[in-house]
Design brief:
Elements (H helix, E strand, L loop, with lengths): L5 E6 L4 H11 L10 E6 L4 H17 L4 E7 L2 H4 L5 E4 L11 H22 L5 E4 L4 H10 L9 E3 L2 H15 L6 E2 L3 E2 L7 E2 L5 E2 L2 E2 H5 L2 H13 L1 H9 L5 H14 L5 E7 L11 E10 L2 E4 L7 H20 L5
Parallel strand pairs: 1-2, 1-4, 2-3, 4-5, 5-6
Antiparallel strand pairs: 7-10, 8-9, 10-11, 12-13, 13-14
Helix pairs in contact: 1-10, 4-5, 6-8
Length: about 325
């Protein structure tokens, strides 16, 4: 007997990340090659985006994916999130020329208030939420604040792109396969302040710092390269990361659905690793059952790591203060 389809709601579904994401979900890369899915796709309720969404749906049909059971195309959040098991909040307002970060936080806050309320009202009881739209750590905080039915641990934000970037840079420097790099976790905000913790990372089972043998490079080149990779991509291609962000979201959801997986996720900190208890911060988690996880709290931080975590915590607290009237 075939499995019951999983309903996956995706916002900003006709955007660049959505376009890079949907075909991979429908092919089984995210939830498994034997797991049917129903895609519930949300776009801005105006003619242009809705027309583009229809075109994306036509292409999905033309791929003839066996696992794609149905699609819902809508501009209504209540329709998109109805009975959804996974809610992937990809869409957000981008920062425009001359826009202050505080204005961006508040404008996006209004979007995530509405989406958080809709999810809590109509999504499935086992709904899990992954926020990608930036600033994702604060957007997930806003969405979770609207929930009365769903608990805070159902809401996560994506720092997996930073983890993937960090692992790739270590592998490149060491001249090894990406599979040789492990235990590289992201702490804090999905922003240039995030801390890619090379102090506990391993390459080929050995301490990464020992294998690299260049502390100055790790502190002064590696961390800024990972933290500012998104800006470098915009400078190079004139557009934000799309394919790599979609790939990271596939990783994020797949690993949160795979018991035993250990990976970086932004979760409500509850005061772990010195973060303010009320912010959502990246940290290492272990998936315990499909949909549940526990934070790995055993890593001891040296003074350098603590200083980096303090900086990204300061930024997260500042963002929370900016949007406190939305919580």
């Amino acid at each position: 007997m075939s499995k019951t389809p999983i309903r996956v709601a995706v916002t900003g579904a006709a955007g660049n990340i959505g376009y890079a994401l949907l075909f991979r979900i429908a092919s089984g890369e995210m939830l498994g090659k034997d797991q049917p899915v129903i895609l519930q796709l949300l776009e801005i309720p105006v003619e242009g985006p809705q027309k583009a969404l229809k075109g994306v749906a036509m292409e999905l049909e033309d791929c003839a994916f066996p696992l794609l059971q149905d699609m819902v195309l809508t501009g209504d959040a209540d329709v998109a999130f109805k009975d959804a098991n996974w809610c992937l909040l990809v869409g957000s307002k981008p920062r425009g020329p001359g826009m202050e970060r505080a204005d961006l936080l508040k404008d996006n806050g209004k979007i995530f208030i509405g989406q958080g309320q809709a999810i809590d009202k109509v999504a499935a009881d086992d709904a899990r939420i992954a926020v990608v739209g930036n600033p994702c750590n604060t957007n997930v905080m806003i969405a979770a604040a609207q929930a009365k039915r769903l608990t805070a641990d159902r809401f996560t934000a994506m720092v997996r792109l930073d983890e993937n970037r960090g692992r790739a840079q270590l592998a490149k420097k060491a001249g090894v396969s990406i599979n040789e790099v492990s235990d590289l976790f992201i702490y804090g905000n999905h922003s240039p302040t995030m801390f890619a913790d090379f102090t506990h990372a391993k390459i080929g089972g050995k301490a990464a710092a020992e294998v690299i043998g260049d502390e100055a490079w790790l502190k002064n080149e590696y961390l800024p390269t990972v933290g500012k990779r998104g800006a470098a991509i915009i400078d190079a291609r004139g557009q934000s990361s799309a394919a790599s962000a979609a790939n990271a979201l596939i990783d994020h959801v797949r690993d949160l659905s795979t018991p035993g997986a250990i990976h970086s996720v932004a979760v409500k900190s509850e005061g772990r690793y010195g973060f303010n208890p009320d912010v959502w911060a990246g940290m290492p988690v272990k998936t315990t059952t499909a949909g549940s996880f526990e934070v790995i709290e055993s890593y001891e931080m040296d003074d350098f790591a603590k200083s980096k975590i303090a900086l990204t915590n300061y930024e997260l607290v500042g963002e929370r203060e900016t949007i406190k009237d939305l919580l």
